[in-house]
Every structure is written in C-alpha cells, then in structure tokens.
Design brief:
mainly alpha, 2 helices, elongated, 0% strand
C-alpha cells in the first residue's frame, strides 16, 4: 500500500503541474497530459480503496 500512496503522490504532483501550465499559459499539450494523469489517478484511487478495505478487515 505504501507504493500505491507514493504513486498517487507523484501523479497528483504531475497533474497539478500540467493543469497549472494549461491554465496559466494555455498549453494544450499540458492539458492533455493532465487529463491522462487524472485517469491514472482515478484508477489508483479505486485500487487504494480496495487495498485499504482489505487491510481494515484484518
């Protein structure tokens, strides 16, 4: 679970950087990267929820 949390942290940082770049300078490629990372974040959060629930049952 620790690896999953580290990956989420990295993904959130990448998302924030690319989203800010799109907002501030209108960088379309950064917007596309941010949207792609948001999908990865969504999948990782679902996995975290599954792992967390299993860990709490033990």
């Amino acid at each position: 679970m620790k690896n999953l949390v580290e990956k989420l942290k990295e993904d959130f940082e990448a998302f924030a950087k690319d989203a800010a770049s799109q907002i501030e300078s209108g960088n379309k490629a950064a917007g596309q990267r941010a949207r792609k990372v948001s999908l990865d974040i969504e999948k990782a959060l679902k996995e975290f929820r599954k792992v967390s629930v299993e860990a709490s049952k033990k």
